[in-house]
Structures are given as C-alpha cells and as structure tokens.
Specification:
By secondary structure, the protein is α+β, with helices and mostly antiparallel strands. The protein folds into two domains: 196 residues, BirA Bifunctional Protein, domain 2 (2-Layer Sandwich); 142 residues, no CATH class. Helix content is 42%, strand content 17%. The protein is built from 13 helices and nine strands. Strands 1, 2, 3, 4, 5, 6, 7, 8 and 9 form a nine-stranded mixed sheet that branches. β1, α2 and β2 form a beta-alpha-beta unit. α7 runs antiparallel to α8. The protein is globular and about 70 Å long. The two termini are 37 Å apart.
C-alpha cells in the first residue's frame, strides 16, 4: 500500500506543476521556513502565468509547550500545498478536489468530512449545495488569514470526524476573495502526518508505524502520553534542525531555537522527576543519533542542570528575605527573569518547601486545554460536529 505522501504526490502530479521546496533553515528575515507559501508569493502577485502548482515543504514554527498536550501539535512537520492562481468561483473546484483526493484516493468517508467556513453569505451559499449538512459557518473574523499581499483572505478548514473529535486535515485559503464577484485565487496546505494517523487508526500523531517503536519505548518510562508526545515532537524538531546547522546549540538565532526546544523537554522531565539521561539513551538507541546530535543533548543536559541548581539556590536566598511570601504570577515571572527557573519548576520548589500556592497559579501552569481532538478520546465532544463554534 502506498504511503499518504506517495498518494499525495501521485495525485497532485496529475493536477499541477511541482515547485521546488524551500530550505528549512533560512538566513533571511526568518530563521526557518514556516509555511509552504514562502518563496512562492510571486505566483499570486505577478499573475503573469496563472496555473496550478504544488509543493512538498518541511516547515518549522514554534509551538507553546503547553499546546503539545494537543495530540496533533508539533513544531516540525511536512506539509503539501496546492496553489491555483486562476481567479475563479471556488466551490465546485474544492468539492471536486476533496472528493477525488480524500474520498476516492485516500479512502475517507464523505460522511466524516466537514467544512468550517466564514459566515459570509456567498461563501456559505456556495458550499451548502455541495456539502449538505456538512458546512459549519463561524465568524469570518476567526478565519481571516494574513498573507504578505493585498486583499481579504479567508480560511476554509477541512476536518474529519474521528472518535467524536475533529481533526483538521487541510486548510484552504480563499486568496483575495472578491465578495461582489464571489471569486478568488486558491492556496492550501494538507497535513500528511494527520492523514496517516487517521488512515492507521492511531490515537495521536506519533502512534503510527513510522514512530511506534520510539513512542512505545518512551511510553514505558514516561508517566503520560502527553509527555511522550511533547518529548518526541520537541526533540525530533531539535535533532532535525541540528542535522542542517553547522554548529551545536547556543545563545543566538538558530542555535538558540534548538537550545530552547531541548530545554522545553528538560523542564518537563525535571518536573515529572524523570532522569533526562534515560530519555537521551532511548533516542540514541532507537533514532541512531549522530555525534553532533549526541553532543548537543549532553551539552544542554549539563548546562540545564547547573542552571536549575543555581536558580534554586538563588530562590532559596530570596525566600529567606521575605516575611510574607505571596506566590502569584508576578512572583513566578520575577523568578524566571531573575533566576532562570521556569514557572513549573519554581512552583515545584515552592511546594516542596511548604509554601501555599493559589489554585489559579497551579491551574495556569497545568496544560488542561480541551481541543477538538484529545489524547483521551472519551473527552471528545463532537458526536455532532455541527455544534462546533
């Protein structure tokens, strides 16, 4: 059976012209390529040769560590983009593309596919006849898209109902939408890793064949799937970037980004009282790290351990000087800025020393957001996707 990426390549090769991928690591105003539309903006601005194009692009963008409790979130991912720069009324075009690709090629049921669209009358009216009972309008302001050229641009999100949750598998953008003429250009991204997850009936992004060995090895030593997911997503991003950088981790630009990814993991492992070297050993064994990657992980572990120990000593000295210690967000910000202790570790230290912490503070550092799709599928709320707001 062909992989999702092979199927996407086969389908788009018949429909569009392949564009070269942008470099993941950049040395312009951006440190990394974060969207497939980078370097192809000219297709929409010059309009000298309207046509259809597609691109496979590895992208990196920061994900807040708290958001990695989302089983679909990852800072590094492969995206496929489809670009149609012929101005047109888009509804039949999108319908045909999605039916041919998602249903006929990839085998998803049309009954499980829904569209989240802006509540603009012409757009709702364009999709409704093609997707009866599967169009979910929400305020247009929530779907307004910023692009580096003029016009009003709106997302149309393609979601699949899965275990009573919603998984976004593609985002279309109605580029330079003309409300009077009811036409636009088209931009889009497809998420092959999410499509793979659905096709393999997995419950999170890394519980698939390609990463199952690593996931299982980490699940044996980590307390939650959320921490397994965070560890894989952040470290995979860091290790991939290291393969393309001439230096190891550091305090500036690209090297600092890698450092921050690794330290996000170290922070959560320390909070969970997991020995980081155990996790490093799993990655070394399963992922076959090179010398630079291994050296960077060890360097950050040593540096982080020293930094946290020093921060705790400074915090202990500070606390002794306070007659009435009030542990609130202001104090946690001060501790982080002055002593380098992340809030979750500062709270852990304060609790260990029997100081009272407000419940709101504990709630603020505990990732508990409810997503459209959750690790615990019993908490998913979209048995009827049309209630999505």
């Amino acid at each position: 059976m062909l992989s999702i990426e092979q199927q996407l390549n086969t389908y788009f090769s018949k429909q569009a012209q392949l564009l070269p991928a942008s470099p993941l690591v950049r040395f312009d105003q951006h440190l990394f390529t974060f969207s497939p539309i980078q370097d192809v903006e000219y297709l929409y601005t010059k309009q000298s040769n309207p046509g259809q194009y597609f691109k496979r692009q590895v992208c990196f963008r920061h994900v807040y560590p708290s958001d990695t409790v989302n089983p679909l979130a990852t800072p590094l991912q492969v995206l496929y983009s489809y670009h149609d720069t012929q101005r047109q009324t888009p509804y039949q075009k999108l319908h045909t593309l999605l039916i041919n690709l998602l249903v006929n090629e990839l085998g998803f049921s049309m009954d499980d596919i829904y569209l989240i669209v802006p509540d603009i009358p012409n757009i709702i009216g364009g999709f409704k006849p093609l997707w009866p009972a599967h169009v979910m309008p929400i305020p247009a302001t929530r779907l307004h898209c910023k692009l580096p050229f003029a016009g009003d641009h709106y997302y149309v999100k393609v979601v699949v109902k899965y275990h009573a949750g919603l998984v976004t598998v593609a985002n279309f953008v109605l580029v330079a939408y003309d409300s009077k003429a009811n036409n636009c250009l088209l931009d889009s991204v497809f998420y092959p890793e999410r499509l793979t997850m659905l096709q393999q009936y997995a419950l999170s992004l890394y519980e698939v064949a390609a990463t199952q060995k690593l996931f299982t090895a980490l699940e044996a030593v980590l307390p939650t799937k959320q921490l397994v997911h965070l560890t894989i997503s952040e470290l995979t991003a860091a290790l991939t970037l290291l393969e393309q950088l001439p230096t190891v981790t550091g305090a500036k630009k690209h090297a600092y980004t890698v450092r921050r990814l690794i330290r996000n993991v170290l922070t959560e492992l320390t909070a969970a009282e997991i020995e980081p070297q155990l996790i490093w050993d799993v990655f070394t064994h399963v992922s076959k790290l090179n010398d630079q990657q291994t050296a960077s992980l060890q360097q950050e572990l040593v540096s982080f351990t020293k930094s946290i120990a020093q921060g705790e000593r400074q915090l202990k000295k500070y606390v002794r000087q306070q007659q009435d210690l009030q542990v609130d967000s202001t104090l946690l910000d001060h501790i982080y800025a002055s002593y380098g202790l992340p809030p979750v570790l500062a709270v852990k230290w304060v609790q260990a020393h029997k100081y009272t912490i407000a419940a709101t503070i504990l709630a603020s550092i505990t990732p508990s957001r409810n997503f459209a799709f959750n690790f615990d599928v019993t908490t998913n709320q979209y048995h009827d996707p049309l209630i999505y707001r």
